[in-house]
Amino acid sequence: MAKFKELIVWQRAMDLVVLVYKKLEDFPKNEMYALSDQIRRCGVSIPSNIAEGAGRNSKKEFVQFLHIALGSLYELQTQLEISERIGYIANDEILLDKIFEIEKMLNALISSIKKGIQ
User: Fold this and answer.
1) What is the DSSP string of 65-110?
2) Which CATH number belongs to the domain containing residue 60 in this structure?
């Protein structure tokens, strides 16, 4: 098994992708290729960047990819907020809790790795 699959933050990010895809089923059909596509891409980007960073040769590169994953998480949060404001989806506490959990985990992992680099 690939080492990144053992990371709890990667596992939680994969769970988030599933939740996001299920949430997008509520979107209007005419919205399949604009905002919903962007939401899918940034959602998938989170665990993908965690995995790619874990496969790099240095801790510094891993941290860089974790920052990219964190940026994608913030992007996802913003796009979900936009979707809620325009009435495509309702507020979803389970989804938001998962996002905040992953944010905390990414920040903690970044801090931990940075301490090991110094």
Assistant:
1) HHHHHHHHHHHHHHHHHHHHHTTSS---HHHHHHHHHHHHHHHHHH
2) 1.20.1440.60
Q: How many domains does the chain have?
A: 1
- Its pTM stands at 0.93
**9-34 tens-digit pLDDT:** 999 999 999 999 999 988 888 877 78
One-letter amino acid for residue 63 of the chain: V
Residue 52 neighbours by CB under 8 Å, 6+ apart? 65
Q: Domain containing 35: what range?
A: 3-117
Q: How far apart are CA 9 and CA 103, in angstroms?
A: 9
| Six-digit token string for 100 | 């905040």
Half-sphere exposure of 13 (CA within 13 A, CB side): 30
